[in-house]
């Protein structure tokens, strides 16, 4: 899964859709690099990020979703808003990636009413405050229980078991030790039977492990993707698609098990 961010700093004071063309070009490059899925996001989940209105989020992502769906790509949309989910699905998205695991009122129904798949992610608290209270008795058990409960809520709302993926949410309200525990215990999440999606690309836990700033974390990110696949991830969400796909090809040839980047 290749990451396509459509969150321009210039958008609020700039032109109407200043970066649609560059986002589409980036998405096409990720497909050429071997991405199986594009994850298109117009709302930053960055800690402390300013909230984005539904109107602005739609203006950012819809042209990109429509163009990539028209190209035949499998399109995921990274959003917490039911209105954005519905519009994105109508424009051709077939997967919703929600860091709030469809907790927003109406989100369950928005996905259930469609044939779309959903990635349910674990986050402690809200993006603005999630790194404040990092207390877990057993982070692996707590994350797993949360995700299994959300999957049950999805199924009760009419979302088929086969359409649900689980994601421990690396970096979302977790310390380095919590993130490392979750990575090591990914098989326990995979044992639920739902495919697991792992997002480790360029994250601060890799900075903590290597001492590298965000612009110098590609090798760490590729290693993290391989580690996640080795521990049972079915999908890895990455910025560096070409390098990750190359690494997974060698990994696979060596009989180390397969995943999709
Ligand atoms: C600032 C902070 C910028 C955090 C970007 C991020 C995930 C996700 C994100 C993930 C799923 C990033 C994150 N991370 N969706 N969206 N899983 N399913 O590093 O780990 O891309 S945003």
Layout of helices and strands, plus pairs?
Elements: E1 2-5, H1 20-32, E2 37-41, H2 54-70, E3 74-78, H3 82-90, E4 95-98, H4 107-112, E5 117-121, H5 139-156, E6 164-167, H6 176-184, H7 186-190, E7 197-198, H8 204-210, H9 218-230, E8 235-236, H10 241-253
Parallel strand pairs: 1-2, 2-3, 3-4, 4-5, 5-6, 7-8
Helix pairs in contact: 1-2, 2-3, 9-10
Ligand 7PM binds next to strand 5.
Structure write-up:
By secondary structure, this protein is α/β, with parallel strands linked by helices. Helices cover 42% and strands 12% of the residues. It contains ten helices and eight strands. The strands form two sheets. Strands 1-2-3-4-5-6 form a six-stranded parallel sheet, with helices on one face. β4, α4 and β5 form a beta-alpha-beta unit. The N and C termini lie close together (5 Å). Ligand 7PM binds next to β5.
């Amino acid at each position: 899964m290749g990451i396509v961010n459509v969150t321009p700093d210039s958008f609020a004071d700039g032109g109407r859709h200043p970066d649609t063309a560059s986002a589409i070009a980036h998405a096409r490059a990720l497909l050429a690099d071997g991405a199986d899925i594009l994850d298109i996001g117009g709302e930053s989940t960055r800690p402390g990020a300013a909230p984005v209105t539904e109107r602005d989020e739609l203006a950012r992502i819809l042209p990109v979703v429509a163009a990539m769906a028209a190209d035949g790509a499998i399109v995921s949309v990274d959003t917490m808003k039911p209105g954005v989910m519905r519009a994105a699905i109508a424009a051709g998205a077939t997967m919703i990636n929600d860091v709030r695991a469809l907790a927003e009122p109406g989100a369950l129904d928005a996905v259930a009413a469609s044939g779309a798949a959903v990635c349910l992610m674990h986050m402690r608290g809200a993006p603005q405050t999630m790194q404040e209270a990092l207390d877990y008795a057993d982070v692996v058990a707590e994350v797993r229980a949360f995700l299994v409960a959300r999957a049950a809520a999805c199924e009760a709302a009419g979302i088929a078991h086969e359409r649900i993926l689980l994601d421990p949410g690396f970096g979302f309200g977790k310390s380095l030790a919590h993130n490392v525990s979750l990575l090591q215990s990914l098989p326990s999440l995979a044992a639920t039977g739902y495919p697991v999606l792992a997002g480790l690309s360029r994250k601060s836990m890799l900075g903590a492990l290597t001492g590298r700033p965000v612009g110098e974390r590609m090798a760490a990110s590729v290693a993290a993707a391989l580690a996640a696949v080795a521990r049972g991830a079915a999908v890895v969400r990455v910025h560096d698609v070409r390098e990750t796909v190359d690494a997974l090809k060698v990994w696979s040839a060596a009989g180390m098990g397969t995943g999709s980047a």
